[in-house]
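I am still getting used to backbone structure tokens and would like to learn alongside you. Would you supply a protein for us yourself, any chain you care to pick? Start from the sequence, derive the backbone structure tokens from it, and show both lines together. Go ahead whenever you are ready, and we will take it from there.
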Amino acid sequence: MVHSIFSRPELSPTFIRDHNQEAQAVWEAFKAGKPVRPPVGLGTNTQFFIFNHDLNSGESVSMQEYMTQARVMLDFSLKAAVWRAYHVAPYCDDQIGLPDEFSIRIDVQNIDEAAYFGAPVHFIAHQVPDTLPILTGDKKFALFDQGFPDPFKAGWYATTTKIYEEMQEYLAAQPTYLDRPIRIEPYGYWTGGIFTLAVSLRGHELMTDLYEDPQYVHDLLKYLSEATIHRVKAYHQFFDLPFPGSELFYADDAIQLISTKMLKQFLLPLLRHYKESVITREHFKIHLCGDASRHFKTLQDELGVNEFEVGFPIDFGAIRQQLGPDVTIHGGPNVMILKEGTPEEVSQETKRILSSGVLEGGKFVLREGNNLAPHTPFPNLNAMYQQARLITY
């Protein structure tokens, strides 16, 4: 099925038909609460495509060009979507082939929220962009005397607003790609996490603040929480989304840095307030990179989280025992095993995870942990996928 470890797989019409029928049936059964086997997903963010020599030879499109020029972002996103539909889809439960509609997002990476408060954005060669802390040393109180920034003009949101407007102009003149309509997704209406944002703005000093100046930490997190709700509400209104709405996807990767005692002390009251302000539903999904698994039970009990997307190979069996069979867990092999291991090693690691007890209740989605690295060999993806296809509930 594969010419080489990186070239496009050979896809016959029969293979595409059979794959798509199976994938659709697997997802429909899973969503109906009657899974037949674990669904398989694969995460591919922008770096997977930008730094992929098959798709972006010689990095002819740089990350900075992509993130600052509307035409480049639109064209490359469409190209990447087609590439994924024929290169990645065969190794997970995606549909192979062109979608009925191209859904394009204004890509802000993970810089938008810190930049919103004034953190400078730095583009690093052959890497994703990052921001530098602005509340270091005696600057720690700098934000408190300011009102909340303008959601559409402050920091990187000025750039995203411009890109969004220019994309809409392009689509008014050319609304389709490969005869499919193009839709620009809403953006700016969720957060990557209040504590993660605080770490981005204050840097490593926030870790000592937890002990030396806990009141400052409380004040900073409260300010950032209220400012984030202000921004999130503004984007709900801009895109005519219900506020509070029924959906919420939350993330806060930096909570892996603190104890559960600190989570309860500094964050839980704010997270309850954020949830009550933004959504109407009782349960929601959270994404947590790193090993934040010690917090999962608390998040389940205190906030109603019933779906965990993990970004690190955790003890899946232990987590299933703690959370019970009714909680959905997304996770799988480390991305570096997928990138640098052999197909046999990937197959064994996948088998180990699937045999851990995590499948109890049938609410497990197998995926990489977390986001495929550029140049991950197709045979390794196939090894993971085929292990999942051996499972029968």
In short: Residues 339 and 376 are 4 Å apart (CA to CA).
